[in-house]
Each structure stands twice: as C-alpha cells, then as structure tokens.
Amino acid sequence: MDKFTTLTAIAAPLPEANIDTDKIIPSRFLKTIQRSGLGRHAFDAMRYNPDGSEKPDFVLNQPAYRHAQILITYENFGCGSSREHAPWALLDFGLRCVIAPSFADIFHSNCFKNGILPIQLPREICELLMRDAAQGPNSRITIDLARQVVVRPDGQEIAFEVDALRRHLLLEGLDDIGQTLQRAPAIDRFEQTRAATAPWMPGIAIPA
What we know:
alpha/beta; 4-stranded parallel beta sheet; Aconitase, domain 4
C-alpha cells in the first residue's frame, strides 16, 4: 500500500448526500477480486449513459477534474453494502482522499485499509472547499496528514482529526498484511520454538 503523507492535488466537488456503494461501484462489477481496472466503472451510472457514452455534466467527466485526487462531497458517503470494491474503484480511478461531513462506518474503515484518507469536516467547511474546487485545476488543495490539516488555495489551514493508529498506518503505507509482516521475525522465532518443543503441532501427517 502506498504511503499517504502530503497530497497537493485537484479536488472535485460532488455536492450530493447519501452516495451509496452501489453508486460508487455497481454490483455487476463485483465478480473480480482484482483491485485494478475498477476505476473505469467508478460512479458508473453517474458517469455514463445507457449506450456507454459519457455524461458531460458529471464532474469527473469534465476536463478540469479528470485527474482529481481529492473528492469533496456531502453526508453519509459510502452507505449501503459493505463491498470493499468501493474504495478499490476510487483508488484505481486516482482518488486518494475523500472529504465529507460523515461516512458510513464500514466504508470509512475500508478506506484506511486501502490507502484512501477519509476526512470528516463540518458541512459548511465542505461547502467552502467545494467553492475552492469549483475554480478548476489551478485551485489546488493540500492535505497534510502528518500535521492533520487541509490547506486551502489561499493558504488557510483547516484542522482535522484522524485516529492515531490509522494515521500511523497510512503514513507508513501499512495495510493489515503489512502490519503482520512487521512481526515476521517474531513469528518465525515462535514457529521455530514450537517445532522444537511440540513437533506434533506444525502439521498433521496424512496416512499413505
């Protein structure tokens, strides 16, 4: 998982509440367990017409926001089913940070596990940042996770809070597997000791 330290990027405004995981990635695209390739289906029904053509009014189809890495939206983002494909799709599209007044709990947790930073800020602050984002690609927002601040294009800093452990894991680029691998030497020592003191434990002999 890539580290998240400081991000200065284009922010896309999406002023809509209760965007569920089926809107983020429709269920028909959940057959894969691959994390790559899902970005083209992110917000599928919002981005495309039934014939597959793009909807020009949707923010991520607009030239100014095609390479956005920050999404600013409204309450209860990521509600609905618990599908982990939702953050996979956002990340594969290129989004590394979502700012909203609130998030669905499971989606919020899945973001941290996949290298996306969800930032919770009051609605009035989200609206302020949307006005900044509406100025286009020359109006970039900075996310400084180490200092836990969002920096507006005019230099104003807005503080946010992230759980200390989750903040550490993002800064170090550690998912669940990465955390376990940090303990690899201790795990190896345990396995060696168990093999020596309880040789019947490592495996079960299968009769010929």
